[in-house]
């Protein structure tokens, strides 16, 4: 491996790093990617899990970002209809509220018309005294606006990009830390350490892409030895998961007196996701945890709208992540730009470097295309943009074909419970059949770890998706951690420790 000279070496296995690697290898570049932990173990699994235009970004005049995001919603939905699907949002309104009705109407008009919407339904106005969406809310909210955005299983989107990149020939290395990178004889010389085995390796590449997310400045300082690197503003976002607060399939967009917003979203069938917060963060991103202050904030903010208050004791799980926003000098964390910035160093010389700052799930594909424009300018163009008409693994079925896929799976595997079949199609799409193989009865799926997580699924995740620990399976490849007890989770961990890592 050390003798091969890659065109591109990518640092970072979040959505941007995996997206760039996939796009690049699909154009004919030779690509290697190193991620120091598991895929999506940082920011990319800690999002609010929306494919959205960013309605609130209009207030900060980020029209380019909003337009690009709106255009991407339906493109990404078609790319991965198993892990991405439309979601209607209800924005309750009352007279004397945070924002006047005319401003909301104007924002939603732009939202409907700025991004070439074709499949998603348009904005509507709801009478909350008659509409079922009003049932869980306080009587104060007699009116609401309803609009469209999308939902995504964020961590699965990351690993499917990595899987597709590997299938197309990229060298994908999770749990591999870059310890140094230096220019020598017109090439990058990169030293890595396997964080599991301790093995050290050397790599060579014509170009380096630093897509390390919250660690992008850290990589610049430690791996490259540049002490002055302060490009990223770290902003913590935390979420709480509570038992289901409402039966309606729509989500809620709540406006708070401090001008911040939170969402309340149906989650995994049995739960409600509430988030997010926005506050500056200065500690190590790997140590991020929800604070008591954030917990109280989210509970209080949601309780301003729901008839039945949200209490800290209702919380069944929390997660937090650090967003690596480009530091544009904004005074408040929620005002810092969500747009991405790509900075090319060494343009016109050997061994160029591309640093990736900011970005969000919705725009990762376009960020990747823009990164490939800079890569082409630096080391030569290979291939044309291709991802807009592509499918992520398992997503090769019609954009509105989820129900048909579920029915198809149940016909072939008649023993599957309806909910189990639905979950498998949501996670794996057309790859669910590869996971189930020749199984003819539940017993053929092997050991049951809890919920409907069977040995066959765990083995598939180890063999095809680089899962190595129970946490990888329970909280990133799936969300079965919400359904398994501590004892069941420990049993899974022990099982996985006894089988070899196999994905490649």
From TrEMBL:
Named cofactor requirement(s): FAD
PROSITE patterns found in the cross-reference section: FAD_G3PDH_1 (PS00977)
Record's keyword annotation contains NAD: no
Pfam families: DAO (PF01266), DAO_C (PF16901)
Signal peptide (residue range): none
InterPro entries, per database record: DAO_C, DAO_C_sf, FAD-dep_OxRdtase, FAD/NAD-bd_sf, G3P_DH_FAD-dep
Enzyme Commission code(s) on record: 1.1.5.3
Reaction catalysed by this enzyme: a quinone + sn-glycerol 3-phosphate = dihydroxyacetone phosphate + a quinol
Enzyme type, top EC level: oxidoreductase
Domain Alpha-glycerophosphate oxidase C-terminal span(s) in chain numbering: 387-495
Domain FAD dependent oxidoreductase residue range list: 7-342
Annotated keywords: FAD, Flavoprotein, Oxidoreductase
Family from the record: Belongs to the FAD-dependent glycerol-3-phosphate dehydrogenase family.
Name of the protein this chain belongs to: Glycerol-3-phosphate dehydrogenase
Lineage of the organism: Bacteria, Pseudomonadati, Pseudomonadota, Alphaproteobacteria, Hyphomicrobiales
């Amino acid at each position: 491996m050390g003798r091969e000279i890659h065109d591109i070496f990518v640092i970072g296995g979040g959505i941007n790093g995996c997206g760039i690697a996939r796009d690049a290898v699909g154009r004919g570049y030779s690509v290697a990617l190193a991620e120091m932990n598991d895929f999506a173990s940082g920011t990319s699994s800690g999002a609010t899990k929306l494919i959205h235009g960013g309605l609130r970004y209009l207030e900060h005049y980020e029209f380019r970002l909003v337009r690009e995001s709106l255009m991407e919603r339906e493109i990404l939905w078609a790319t991965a209809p198993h892990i991405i699907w439309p979601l209607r949002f209800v924005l309750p309104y009352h007279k004397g509220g945070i924002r006047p009705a005319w401003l909301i109407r104007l924002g939603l008009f732009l939202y409907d018309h700025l991004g070439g919407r074709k499949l998603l339904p348009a904005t509507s106005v709801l009478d909350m005294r008659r509409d079922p969406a009003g049932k869980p809310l306080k009587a104060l909210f007699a009116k609401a606006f309803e609009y469209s955005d999308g939902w995504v299983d964020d961590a699965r989107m990351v690993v499917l990009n990595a899987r597709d990149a590997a299938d197309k020939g990229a060298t994908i290395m999770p749990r591999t830390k870059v310890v140094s990178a230096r220019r020598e004889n017109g090439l990058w010389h990169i030293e890595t350490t396997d964080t599991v085995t301790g093995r050290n390796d050397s790599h060579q590449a014509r170009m380096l892409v630093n897509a390390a997310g919250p660690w992008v400045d850290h990589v610049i300082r430690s791996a490259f030895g540049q002490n002055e690197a302060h490009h990223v503003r770290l902003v913590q976002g935390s979420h709480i998961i509570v038992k289901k607060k409402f039966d309606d399939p729509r989500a809620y967009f709540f406006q708070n007196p401090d001008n911040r917003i939170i969402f309340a979203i149906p989650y995994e069938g049995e739960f409600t996701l509430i988030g997010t917060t926005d506050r500056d963060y200065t500690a190590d991103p790997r140590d991020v945890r929800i604070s008591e202050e954030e917990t109280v904030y989210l509970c209080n903010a949601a309780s301003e709208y729901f008839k039945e208050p949200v209490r800290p004791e209702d919380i069944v799980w929390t997660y937090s992540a650090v967003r690596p926003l480009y530091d544009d000098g904004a005074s408040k964390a929620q005002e810092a730009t969500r747009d991405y910035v790509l900075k090319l160093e060494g343009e016109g010389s050997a061994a160029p470097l591309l640093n990736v700052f900011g970005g969000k799930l919705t725009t990762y594909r376009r960020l990747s295309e823009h990164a490939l424009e800079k890569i082409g300018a630096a080391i030569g163009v290979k291939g044309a943009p291709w991802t807009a008409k592509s499918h992520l693994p398992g997503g090769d079925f019609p954009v509105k074909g989820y129900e048909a896929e579920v029915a198809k799976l149940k016909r072939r595997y008649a023993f599957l419970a309806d909910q189990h079949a639905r979950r498998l199609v949501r996670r794996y799409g057309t790859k669910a059949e590869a996971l189930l193989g020749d199984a003819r009865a539940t017993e053929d799926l092997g050991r049951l770890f809890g919920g409907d997580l069977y040995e066959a699924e765990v083995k598939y995740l180890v063999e095809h998706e680089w899962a190595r620990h129970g946490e990888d399976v329970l909280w990133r490849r799936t969300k079965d951690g919400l359904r398994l007890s501590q004892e069941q989770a420990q049993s899974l961990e022990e099982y996985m420790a006894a089988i070899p890592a196999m994905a490649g």
